[in-house]
Design a protein that fits this description.
YbhB_YbcL/LppC-like; Phosphatidylethanolamine-binding protein; disordered N terminus; 3 helices; 181 residues; PEBP; signal; 5-stranded antiparallel β-sheet; alpha+beta; single chain; PEBP-like_sf
């Protein structure tokens, strides 16, 4: 306990701790801990949703943020590696939201790039767990990044985008929803 206290005091004295607002992610389309609406469910693979990307809004990014990335992931997919449903990167630092349907309507913030989902295409791919599985969790996360741009094309798969995003993350905030059929 004394070592922790001493380390905290030293960090404080030498300016190693920086206070900033806690990063937050909100959505009018996703309610944390609740079931995803049919609007955000995939249309294909046996699912009949509308496949509309959700609205996401964030605040409290730390000082030094040069860009953002958004990723949507299903850790419960029966693949051994989860399922990437959406990745958007190179979102400018002055952006603080993505509108409902921005993926399908190509209304993302200027310069933003959508990576390839595990469905095999770029853009948003909604929830579509196997029929009969317990409801899956869908994690929507915004990342504040310390770089202006990630050196990736729109064909970059979610795992590669995730590697670059995590290597450059200053802070992040998430919303987790569920969906089953």
């Amino acid at each position: 306990m004394r070592l922790i206290t001493a380390a905290l005091m030293a960090a404080s004295v030498f300016g190693a701790t920086t206070a900033h607002a806690e990063m937050k992610l909100t959505s009018k389309d996703l309610a944390a801990g609740k079931a995803m609406a049919d609007a955000q469910v995939f249309n294909g693979f046996g699912c009949s949703g509308r496949n509309i990307s959700p609205e996401l809004a964030w605040s409290g990014a730390p000082e030094g943020t040069k860009s953002f990335a958004v990723m949507a992931y299903d850790p419960d997919a029966p693949t051994g590696s989860g399922w990437w449903h959406w990745s958007v990167f190179n979102i400018p630092a002055d952006a603080s939201k993505i509108a409902t349907g921005a993926s399908g309507d190509k209304k993302l913030p200027a310069g933003a790039v959508e990576g390839r989902t595990d469905f095999g295409t770029s853009g948003y791919g909604g929830a579509c767990p196997p029929a009969g599985d317990k409801p899956h969790r869908y994690q929507f996360t915004v990342y504040a990044l310390k770089v202006d741009k990630l050196p990736l094309p729109e064909t970059a798969p979610g795992a590669m985008v995730g590697f670059y995003v995590r290597a450059n993350t200053l802070d992040k905030a998430s919303i987790e929803v569920t969906y089953g059929r």
